[in-house]
Amino acid sequence: MATEMIGRVCDSVRTELENRHLNRYINSILTAYVFRRPPDYEAGLGLLLRVRGTSSFTLSEIWTDESGAAPRKCTSLG
Known about the structure:
disordered C terminus
C-alpha cells in the first residue's frame, strides 16, 4: 500500500511540474521517476533525451541551480 501511495504522489508531482514548465523543473521531474517503486529509470532517461534533443541548454545547465552553483549532495534522506 505504501508503495502504491509513493507511486501516486510521484506521478502527481511529475505531471504537475511537466505541465507547468518542463525545462525549469527537469531535476524534480527526473527525481519523481527515480523515487517510484520500482524506479522508472527508462522513462526518466527517455524524457531527458527528448528534452535534450528539443532544447538549446546543455546538461551542465541542468545540473546547476539558478545561481550557477552545483546542487549540494544529499547526505541523508531521514
